């Protein structure tokens, strides 16, 4: 189903996450949001999808996004403009997702490991079998590699924007993306 080259895997990741991005972009107004309510209406589902790709659980993703919007509300008066608000939300979602994953790891240390909940049928219904395989393989990557690939191909962010959202250097973003694509290729070959 997939080529043996890493560029084939990169193409599959780009197509899958690009497809999801296109769905979100089609439902987002082109004007910059002026109010917190506008921002919530225009960005909420996009942020939820971003969180789902990072934490692999819709209910938890909703909680992460709700916390991000709550933090944005508390800091609304200190933001430069609506574009800064979107960056704030993206960073808050990434950081909230990291916290969730850390708590999961801590919980697993005290309990027997468990399988992550299967994705809902609705969340993958619009994806082809190849796209579903890519999303499933993303779930098996280490958190930082998954973050970088999701922000790059779903978020359509530059290395600089990913660096800002994740708090790591641009060089680390670039090397993590490269290692992530290689790891993704290995996971997809093994299935």
What is CATH's topology name?
Answer: Butyryl-CoA Dehydrogenase, subunit A, domain 3
CATH-wise, what's the superfamily? PhyR, sigma-like (SL) domain
What proportion of the residues form beta strands (DSSP E)? under 5%
Morphology:
globular
Cα distance spanning the termini: 10 Å
The CATH C-level class name:
Mainly Alpha
| Tally of structural domains | 1
Total of helices: 9
What is the string of SSEs from the N terminus onward?
HHHHHHHHH
- Write down the overall mean pLDDT: 82
Q: Which structural category do the helix and sheet elements fall into?
A: mainly alpha
Largest sheet: none
Unreliable segments of 5+ consecutive residues: none
Radius of gyration from the alpha-carbon trace, in angstroms: 17 Å
**Helix percentage range:** over 70%
Number of strands: 0
CATH architecture: Up-down Bundle
What does this structure look like?
This protein is mainly α and 191 residues long. α1 crosses α6 (129-138), α3 packs across α4 and α7 (143-153) crosses α9. It has a single domain (6-190), classed as Up-down Bundle (Butyryl-CoA Dehydrogenase, subunit A, domain 3). The chain is globular and about 50 Å long. It is 74% helix and 0% strand. It contains nine helices and no strands. Keywords: DNA-binding, Sigma factor, Transcription, Transcription regulation. It holds the Pfam family Sigma70_r2. Residues 39-105 form the RNA polymerase sigma-70 region domain.
């Amino acid at each position: 189903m997939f080529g043996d080259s890493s560029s084939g895997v990169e193409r599959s990741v780009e197509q899958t996450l690009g497809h999801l991005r296109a769905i979100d972009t089609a439902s987002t107004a082109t004007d910059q949001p002026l109010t917190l309510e506008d921002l919530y209406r225009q960005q909420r589902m996009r942020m939820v999808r971003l969180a789902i790709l990072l934490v692999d659980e819709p209910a938890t993703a909703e909680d992460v996004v709700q916390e991000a919007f709550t933090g944005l509300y508390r800091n609304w008066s200190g933001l430069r403009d609506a574009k800064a608000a979107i960056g704030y939300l993206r960073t808050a979602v990434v950081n909230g997702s990291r916290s969730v994953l850390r708590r999961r790891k801590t919980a697993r240390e005290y309990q027997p490991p468990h399988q992550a909940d299967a994705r809902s049928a609705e969340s993958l219904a619009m994806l082809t079998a190849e796209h579903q395989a890519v999303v499933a393989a993303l779930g098996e990557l280490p958190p930082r590699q998954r973050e970088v690939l999701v922000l790059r191909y779903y978020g359509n962010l530059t290395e600089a924007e990913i660096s800002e959202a994740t708090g790591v250097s641009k060089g680390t973003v670039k090397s993590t993306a490269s290692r992530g694509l290689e790891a993704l290729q290995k996971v997809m070959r093994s299935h």
